[in-house]
Design brief:
This protein is an alpha/beta fold. Helices cover about 20% and strands about 35% of the residues. The strands form 2 sheets. Strands 1, 3, 4, 5, 6, 7, 9, 10 and 11 form a 9-stranded mixed beta sheet that branches. Strands 2-8 form a two-stranded antiparallel ribbon. It is globular. The chain binds NADP nicotinamide-adenine-dinucleotide phosphate. NADP nicotinamide-adenine-dinucleotide phosphate (NAP) binds next to strand 1, strand 2, helix 2 and helix 4.
Length: about 180
């Protein structure tokens, strides 16, 4: 079976910050809805896969995880890490992509956090990046790396929209 291509989905602040103390420092319902639509939409009989680092898994409140309607894969070096039934454990990003590479899988998305994004961005099978860009700087302790020079090109940018005291837009990049 051919290798599975995947995309990254991330929301960053103006300084590329993505998280603080194991959570996201902003509340942006429109981004949660956008994230759900991008990662859930698949044709009948198919499903998408979301791949996340162990800390991102732990950052999702119990009542919202696993993310419904998607195959959830958690990446951890802990071979005995306990997960609910149906959630898959992988010892590396490549092993997660192997697990995800099934006939009934439509798309795969790496959804964080900082450690996994770093590896995913330089991975040869990463063909797209969805970035929600927030035009304000928050106090963050985790960042999203710069896009590698020349690897991706912008293919979509929404207008800026307003949420409380900051504005944001949706951008999409594809492999050049
Ligand atoms: N803004 C956004 O769009 C967004 C999205 C997601 C998350 N976040 C934020 O990002 C932060 C979490 O990011 P983070 O960088 O601290 O952690 P993370 O990437 O979510 O998880 C790190 C953990 O994943 C496992 N891992 C990572 N790379 C691995 C590899 N190559 N092989 C095997 N295991 C690997 C390790 O688990 P073990 O230690 O168990 O081995 C590692 O400790 C939180 O603040 C969260 O809210 C933001």
């Amino acid at each position: 079976m051919a290798k599975l291509e995947f995309s990254i989905v991330v929301a960053t602040d103006a300084a590329m910050g993505i998280g603080k103390d194991g959570t996201m420092p902003w509340h942006l319902p429109a981004d949660l809805a956008y994230f759900k639509r991008i990662t859930s939409t698949a044709p009948p009989g198919k499903m998408n896969v979301v791949i996340m680092g162990r800390k991102t898994w732990e950052s999702i409140p119990d009542r919202f995880r696993p993310l419904p309607g998607r195959i959830n894969i958690v990446v951890s070096r802990q071979t005995d890490y306990e997960l609910p039934n149906g959630v898959l454990l992988a010892g590396s990003l490549d092993l997660a992509l192997d697990l995800a590479n099934k006939d009934d899988v439509e798309n795969a998305f790496v959804i964080g956090g900082g450690q996994l994004y770093k590896e995913a961005l330089s991975h040869c099978d990463c063909t797209g990046v969805y970035i929600t860009k927030i035009a304000k700087t928050f106090a963050c302790d985790t960042v999203f790396p710069s896009l590698p020079d020349g690897k991706f090109e912008g293919v979509y940018a929404s207008n800026y929209m307003v949420n409380d005291d900051f504005s944001y837009c949706f951008k999409q990049f594809k492999l050049s």
